[in-house]
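Renewal narrative, Specific Aim 1. Our central claim is that a sequence can be written position by position from structural information alone. The example that follows is taken directly from our test logs and has not been curated for this report. It begins with the structure tokens describing the chain, in the order in which they were read.
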């Protein structure tokens, strides 16, 4: 209950500041105004997109997210290939990556890897270089 109240207050403050900035014209001359937004993370499940964007902006992309991106790219590439041999080769590559992703999902979390990745994120967020 208390966390919900805190979030409501934060949301209200944020909304008020956004409304005030709009009234003052702060957003009137933004780059890309009037142009459609481009989202390059359509391969990321919708419920993970916010977390992915935070990590991406911090310069850290989880291995699973990178693998998902490769899978998405390969699927699109395969649709454009006319050469049967090349399409078959790319399909085998896609099948391997899909198998790898499924195996990683089924595997229990390795605490050492999780700890190492968490350390890298904390290091990056604290302003030190190298992720």
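The sequence written for that structure reads:
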């Amino acid at each position: 209950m208390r966390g919900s109240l805190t979030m409501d207050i934060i949301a209200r403050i944020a909304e008020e500041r956004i409304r005030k900035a709009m009234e003052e014209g702060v957003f009137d001359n933004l780059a890309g105004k009037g142009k459609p937004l481009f989202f390059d993370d359509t391969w990321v499940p919708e419920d993970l997109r916010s977390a992915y964007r935070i990590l991406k902006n911090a310069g850290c992309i989880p291995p699973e997210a990178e693998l998902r991106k490769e899978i998405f790219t390969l699927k699109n590439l395969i649709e454009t290939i006319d050469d049967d041999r090349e399409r078959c080769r790319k399909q085998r590559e896609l099948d391997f990556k899909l198998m790898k992703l499924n195996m990683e999902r089924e595997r229990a979390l390795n605490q050492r890897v999780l700890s190492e990745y968490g350390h890298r994120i904390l290091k990056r967020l604290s302003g030190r270089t190298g992720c």
